[in-house]
Design brief:
single chain, about 300 residues, alpha/beta, Spore Coat Polysaccharide Biosynthesis Protein SpsA, Chain A, seven-stranded mixed sheet, globular, transmembrane helix
């Protein structure tokens, strides 16, 4: 392919005042302002520093007023309109936490967030950059432990979740729980219709009708598939009953490396839902607004431009 002859670089005019140069300069400024300003107020910048996320910080490098923060103090500090947004996470998941917080900040709800740090490394990291928004409920976990799905480390992390949520309900607050591998594309609070005890997502990959039932989904082969990655709990006796049953179900089936199907918190949550069916007022969130990861990534119809949603 023939190349066009170009003038030597030294002979080319250099000007930022010509029409094209001025347009590009203005465009660059608009892009910079449009990207930097919204993110500069987001939690992403709160957690940026010179340390690597793979190297947990030493407790000695942070002196924080929040080191001995109690759950009651933390919940009181972050609660807005009687509600706390909670995640339970350890230091190895810091990149997920950052991403989740950015999505929440875009919906203007980040001030309600309470990070339940499962190790001191994350407690110091969050409270160093965002004082008051992290609390640790002993005992602390090992910040370097592997938390792969199905491992004992993963079980040790997730099995503590229902007790954390119950403790916050007992303090008198409503609780929205999220796993940190999800993101907010809209404000979820507008979907929390009515005064139900608990709201949750379906975990099935089949697409439901837009007008699907909001009751507890029917079981499949005797098993209910509700996702525990996003739960909203009102401070009611029904919600507390469900969480107590969830704690009982986890304790009744501890983790074991010899079992063919290792237990974790989500099957226990589903068993608790079935066992409290007539005692707890539940609400299945609309699938069109709250797709599970399995639905979003595995069902090709969902992501197809020709899908009905």
């Amino acid at each position: 392919m023939a190349q066009q002859q170009q003038r030597p670089i030294s002979n080319r005019p250099i000007s930022f005042i010509n029409r094209n140069g001025l347009f590009l300069l203005l465009l660059a400024l608009l892009v910079l302002l449009g990207v930097y300003l919204p993110l500069s107020e987001s939690p992403l910048f709160i957690f940026q520093n010179r340390t690597s996320s793979s190297s947990p910080p030493s407790p000695s490098f942070v002196v924080s007023d929040w080191r001995d923060y109690s759950l009651a103090q933390a919940a009181k500090f972050v609660a807005k309109n009687g509600t706390v947004i909670v995640c339970s996470v350890s230091y190895p998941f810091l990149p997920f936490l950052n991403n989740w917080l950015i999505s929440i900040s875009r919906q203007k709800h980040q001030e309600k967030v309470l990070v339940i740090a499962e190790d001191y490394a994350l407690l110091y990291k969050v409270n160093e950059k965002w004082p008051g928004h992290a609390v640790l409920i002993p005992p602390a976990l090992d910040p370097k432990a592997a938390h792969h799905y199905g491992s004992q480390g993963f079980y040790n992390l997730t099995s503590r979740r229902p007790q954390h949520l119950l403790d916050i309900l007992e303090l008198g607050y409503n609780v929205m729980y999220n796993d940190v591998d999800m993101v907010w594309l809209q404000d979820p609070f507008k979907y929390l219709q009515g005064g139900h005890d608990v709201y949750f997502m379906d975990d099935m990959t089949a697409i439901k009708p837009l007008n699907h039932s909001h009751g507890l989904p029917p079981s499949w082969n005797g098993v209910t598939y509700v996702c525990s990655c996003m739960i909203f709990l009102r401070c009611t006796s029904g919600a507390k009953l469900l969480l107590k049953k969830w704690v009982e179900e986890i304790r009744a089936q501890p983790w074991s490396n010899t079992e063919a199907k290792k237990p974790h918190d989500q099957p226990a949550f589903n068993r608790a839902l079935r066992k409290t069916t007539h005692q707890v007022d539940v609400y299945l969130l609309p699938q069109s607004a709250f797709p599970s990861g399995g639905l979003y990534f595995k069902n090709k119809k969902w992501v197809s431009p020709r899908a009905e949603y």
